[in-house]
Amino acid sequence: MEGTIGGRTPSSMPGLDIAEQRAWQHFLDAALRLYGTLNRELSDVHGLTLNDVRMLDALASSPNGSARMGDLAEELMSLPSRVTRQIHRLERQNLVRRCSTPEDGRGVLATITDEGRALLRQAMSTYGDGVRNHFLSRLSRPQTAAMGENCRRIGVALKANDAPARVGRV
After folding, report:
1. What are phi and psi of 113, to 5 degrees?
2. Residue range of the domain that includes 153
3. Are residues 57 and 158 in contact, defined by beta-carbon separation less than 8 angstroms?
4. Which CATH number is 52's domain given?
5. pLDDT tens track for 105-121
6. E-assigned strand segments in the chain
7. pTM > 0.85
8. Quick one: pLDDT at residue 121?
9. Average pLDDT of 3-11?
10. Could you give the count of Cα atoms lying within 13 Å of 103 in the half-sphere of its Cβ?
11. Cα–chain-centroid distance for residue 28?
12. Of 7, 77, 116, 157, which has the fewest Cβ atoms less than 10 A away?
């Protein structure tokens, strides 16, 4: 059948049928709106972006409150230059400090400060409330479980696809 994808009506996005494109657009729109809403709430209340909260949480969750800058960039799926700028900004706010790594002196280690931990505790409360109000309250428990499992499956596959690209990176 000409003009169909396996018997389905094609969309304006090549390779996707109408239902697939609609599902993708709804997901993308919701994810971006949710990100923007949480980011705005955290910024208004605590002066931190959602990325700042994720960074501080990554540091606070590490065994000694520290992480190498490159490891942070990888964990946060961010560019090293963006992480460097973010750490500089958080350092000016006395939320993190930087130092050379003790092992080789060439790497840079970011460490969360006591002030960073205190602000993170407050911000995590706002963040949790926002996730509950804007995301979880819109879904039933089974829908939440299905969403979590579907996103986990997608994330695992994407991470597996990304792994070969990291081989040989310093």
Report:
1. -90, 170
2. 26-158
3. no
4. 1.10.10.10
5. 677 899 999 999 999 99
6. 66-68, 96-100, 108-112
7. no
8. 98
9. 69
10. 5
11. 14
12. 7
